[in-house]
Amino acid sequence: MAETIAVKDAWAAGASLSDADYRAWYEESVTDPEGFWGRHAGRLDWVTPFTKVKNTSFAPGNVSIKWFEDGVLNASANCLDRHAAKDGGRTAIIFEGDDPGESRRISYAEVLEEVCRMANVLKAEGVRKGDRVTIYLPMIPEAAYAMLACARIGAVHSVVFGGFSPDSLAGRLVDATSGFVITADEGVRGGRKVPLKANVDKAIAIAEKGGQKVGKVLMVRRTGGDVAVEPGRDLWWHERREAVAPTCAPEPMGAEDPLFILYTSGSTGKPKGVLHTTGGYLLYAAMTHAHVFDYRPGEVYWCTADVGWVTGHSYIVYGPLANGATTLMFEGVPTYPDAGRLWQVVDKHQVNIFYTAPTAIRALMGAGDEPVTRASRRSLRVLGTVGEPINPEAWLWYYRVVGEERCPIVDTWWQTETGGILITPLPGATALKPGSATRPFFGVRPELVDGEGKPLDGAAEGNLCIADSWPGQMRTVYGDHERFEQTYFSTYKGKYFTGDGARRDGDGYWWITGRVDDVLNVSGHRMGTAEIESALVSHPKVSEAAVVGYPHDVKGQGIYCYVTLMKGEEGTEELRRELVLHVRGEIGPFAAPDKIQFAPGLPKTRSGKIMRRILRKIAEDEPGALGDTSTLAEPAVVEDLVANRQNKR
Ligand code: 6R9
């Protein structure tokens, strides 16, 4: 049994909720969701109040999710105008550049003006309510301005992480039928430049072949590097912003009008456009941000994610700004110029709440304690993690060395699809167990089911489902509602299936064990094995590929590829390097394979299905645990794979 760390008096002092509050609120939230969420929706400003709170169904063939459906509001007005009106000089965004010498504080009044100007530029260039605008920017304040400018005029943003390749960007432009891109000349990370505009140019050419024309590109000047400018199509933000008015009335939006699309990987096919709407999403992001981090007015909050992922959407931009918080945006990486950077930034900006990924913690743990202890870190009060399971060893290092046992750790489990945090401790209210995401947030009803869908009670391990809707839930897969139902509601009828496995212990605490489908989580980046496989087979020398994950000390999971070559091709070291580069080019650098094993054949059943279970065991260096191989079409294939495995200890 893992040790339990009781709530300390110092954590409970001043915390917004106690353990008894948590229990009472949770009880109300699941017995009377209408009353609970109807009341808490008062934390947002509504143009027209809603009369209906919840109208949701997980019924097979009829999945429909609506919250506050007749309410009217605007997300950017909730994030900016109301705070600017009360206290316009308060810092909304602290920008910390890649270069440690560069930082800037931007007030609520200033952010509001920039957002209004960008909204006016979008309008002047023909963007209308409902249009999809693709954002491909580095971690600079303009990324937040762009998202909020879209929200202001009712355009739907689709942020694409700056690490994605032109091909991946093109696929997202086509799927979202998006004809407007906001980008930068170049990004800078860890001292290295990223050619964003050049990638956009390539992506536009590819998208055009796919039938999607991009009419306008708004470019932010970040580095001043040389870029090709196509007259009539490409516009500079710094020029256009001068030519428009500094105010822009927020568009009244229905609570169920789309706010954004964010692409995420599943176990099959191309990435799905996860669609979030306005009212429920914003309320859920704000409410979780306030309670999970116990945010107190005046505090500095820092989430190290990139706005290209959902964590950046909900916990750098929408949640913190809806709460009037000061949110730090960091352009760089944890190890540049050295492994002490994060803690140096904590001291520099007196950060109170810090939220990062287990992979960063493990990487920094490897660099030793000195880069941490060299900084004071006295300002820190709450520490959080997200993105993948955290091993107890990394949890304890974070707790003891970074937080000096002064700061509770909130291990927050959630997904792009869930919009906000679903399972998490609350600081000052929840006793902690290293490695456990602990208890459900308000309104969240997790359930465990076995392979047949039978509910499991008490202490048990199984597949993690959610029994009823919560306001932050995705509403559909953009343009494909059937895929939405099929992916999330057909495996276990009447329940939302997360794709994760989990264990519930005797205290009712939840332990997420990782994906149970063919989705990898590499350094917190989520990707489907199918995407990497199709990138590999698009190489002319590859005839077939199968990709599995294996445990990796820093990345959580590593990418292990089995590759069968075309007849006559030879599996050389050079080809290995070429294939790694090829996958980086097709998807993005974060998808680079860690291991490539050339395989004369793949283990298949007689019906031709690849037996991934076997491939996983070989990649994990457990050839003795292959299990039942009697259904293999050609047993000899496995002997070769075992003999040539790349992870032999
Ligand atoms: C927010 C985010 C979602 C997947 C999810 C799960 C894994 C996220 C976790 C965690 C264990 C945690 N995951 N948080 N696993 N403990 N605290 O990461 O969204 O990129 O969609 O990934 O990440 O496997 O299903 P997304």
From TrEMBL:
Positions where N6-acetyllysine occurs in the chain: 609
Domain (AMP-binding enzyme C-terminal): residue spans on this chain: 531-609
Binding-site residues, Mg(2+): 537, 539, 542
Pfam families: ACAS_N, AMP-binding, AMP-binding_C
GO terms for biological process, alphabetical: acetyl-CoA biosynthetic process from acetate
GO CC term (a single one): cytosol
Gene (name only): acsA
Protein's name according to its UniProt entry: Acetyl-coenzyme A synthetase
Functional note: Catalyzes the conversion of acetate into acetyl-CoA (AcCoA), an essential intermediate at the junction of anabolic and catabolic pathways. AcsA undergoes a two-step reaction. In the first half reaction, AcsA combines acetate with ATP to form acetyl-adenylate (AcAMP) intermediate. In the second half reaction, it can then transfer the acetyl group from AcAMP to the sulfhydryl group of CoA, forming the product AcCoA.
Residues the record lists as binding CoA: 189-192, 311, 523, 584
Top-rank taxon: Bacteria
Domain AMP-dependent synthetase/ligase span(s) in chain numbering: 80-469
UniProt-annotated binding residues for ATP: 387-389, 411-416, 500, 515, 526
InterPro entries: Ac_CoA_lig, ACAS_N, AMP-bd_C, AMP-bd_C_sf, AMP-binding_CS, AMP-dep_synth/lig_dom, ANL_N_sf
EC number per UniProt: 6.2.1.1
Catalytic activity: acetate + ATP + CoA = acetyl-CoA + AMP + diphosphate
SUPFAM superfamilies: Acetyl-CoA synthetase-like
Keyword ATP-binding: yes
Enzyme class: ligase
